[in-house]
Amino acid sequence: MTLAKRLFDVVLALILSIILGGAIIGLAVVLLIKEGRPVLYFSERMKTPTQGFKLIKFRTMKVVEYDCGVSGGDKSARVTPFGGFLRRARLDELPQLWNVLRGDISFVGPRPPLREYVERFPQVYARVLISRPGITGLASVRYHAHEEMLLARCETAAETDRVYARACIPRKARLDLVYQEHQSICFDLRIMLETIWPKLRKL
């Protein structure tokens, strides 16, 4: 990560934390009242091929004793009504401003992968994770809707894993590498606008 990109992340994260601080607290209170504890969900993700960190989100699913893998149709019954709203609006990702400030992730980059996939596909992620992972990215804006459609059809954890590994990882990696080749602050701003514009149009 360049110094300019890191400075951009820190300044923007601080500004957004001030502007959105009240909304973040309000959502946390509503989530606590409607769904109970825990309010936050911590998931291990990878910053580099060897270095993990705890990604923070608002909890959107019912708590279970054991959970693993990406979310597909097999987990859809666990998504709470309020959690579904948070996901559709991407408000569940607001706590990741803390991850940005810590330097775990950037605003724009490849989505941080689970450790199990980094270990299964080391050659892919050795290239992808040259870039700092991000809250959004080129693969997020260009492939996320198709990925959700594919995974929503999966009825078991094994099927979700198979579809994600065979169809999603290679296609997302190609887009992440395109971003890597063309990364700039202007490109980051464009991707961020493409991420939030569909949500703003619905307001």
Kindly describe this structure.
59% of the residues lie in helices and 10% in strands. It has 203 residues and is mainly alpha-helical. Strands 1-2 form a two-stranded antiparallel ribbon. The chain is globular and about 40 Å long.
Concise summary:
By secondary structure, the protein is mainly α.
Could you give the topology of this structure?
Elements: H1 3-35, E1 40-46, E2 52-58, H2 81-89, H3 96-102, E3 106-108, H4 115-120, H5 122-128, E4 134-136, H6 138-152, H7 157-182, H8 185-201
Parallel strand pairs: 3-4
Antiparallel strand pairs: 1-2
Helix pairs in contact: 1-3, 5-7, 6-7
Give short descriptive properties of this protein.
two-stranded parallel ribbon, 4 strands, 203 residues, mainly alpha, two-stranded antiparallel ribbon
Radius of gyration (Å) = 17 Å
Let me know the average pLDDT: 93
Unreliable spans: none
- Largest sheet composition: 2 strands, antiparallel
For the largest sheet, list the strands in their spatial order.
Answer: 1-2
* H and E string: HEEHHEHHEHHH
Principal-axis shape: globular
Number of helices: 8
Strand content: 5-15%
* N-end to C-end Cα span: 34 Å
